[in-house]
């Protein structure tokens, strides 16, 4: 009971500060409070921190810096696959299995096809509604808002925030359609590719790239006819890889009934263990590099908008005339230290 009272106090303080337009010092204090509460696992602080990160507000950078030393404990599991394969339904049922195993969970659903609010996101919310009253499950949907390139960055930060809040497992759903989604899936420690039987297109989509990233393959909707055929097909495709390619288990599931969920959770655990020893927390510099590089990119973006620089303008004109492409222009910009860089 006293915990609740304590938790409410900073909340009240924050509101008062907001009303008074806080000074920088006070704002910094508020930030510390928010981060403390986030690290304490408070859902309200988690929601607020995610909103800050999603909207890329100024406080987002401060939050990311403050939580950095506390990252690396969550297992991040990415579910990707063609539209309609049953990813959301599967995640919902899989999370029930995780809860039975006493894991706290964060879910990030990414829907690049719904720039505004999107029926699919709403659909996901409804499908994941089973967990609405379970404080052990925190669901957040991210819409791309037309910035596909920035989506993987936002998703990575949201995952970090959930990790900092002490979630044991963070689950991320993406439609495996394009490069950006593949990038998002790559953030995950364990990548689960979901497909459903009987759709030739599914196999095509998988062939087009997502098969390579799979740590685990799921054939969902195993209640439908042709499910066995799909398993055999995928198995044959896996057999065509180099013989030193890692073992990729194929798990059959029926997300609507929960069949196969324990097997899936076991496969995820087994992969997570290999990953933990091989890769995870191997070198904290990997994450720091990513964050510094992103921050640098952000700074350059701000400068490019605010600074007027004749040399840079001339470079952009060359792009417009088709003389050089974006990548060449970016390299020139850095080499020549335009925009007062360097
Ligand atoms: N028969 C059967 N239907 C399923 C199963 N799993 C999901 N479905 C149904 O398949 C449809 C699509 O499920 P979703 O979970 O929305 O699929 P999704 O991959 O998340 O779809 P998008 O997010 O739109 O790409 C829904 O009507 C589900 O009820 C299953 O195991 N068996
Ligand atoms: Mg979905």
Architecture overview:
It is built from 14 helices and seven strands. β6, α10 (227-239) and β7 form a beta-alpha-beta unit. It has helices at residues 2-20, 24-39, 43-54, 58-67, 87-100, 119-127, 148-164, 179-187, 200-213, 227-239, 261-278, 284-306, 310-320, 326-335, and strands spanning 75-81, 105-111, 137-143, 169-175, 190-195, 216-219, 250-252. 57% of the residues lie in helices and 12% in strands. α2 crosses α3 (43-54) and α5 (87-100) packs across α11 (261-278). The longest helix has 23 residues, at 284-306. The chain is an alpha/beta fold and 342 residues long. Residues 1-22 and 114-123 have low confidence and may be disordered. It folds into three domains: 2-69; 73-278, P-loop containing nucleotide triphosphate hydrolases (Rossmann fold, 3-Layer(aba) Sandwich); 284-340, no CATH class. Residues 83-89, 120, 127, 175, 220-221, 223-224, 254-256 line the site of guanosine-5'-triphosphate (GTP).
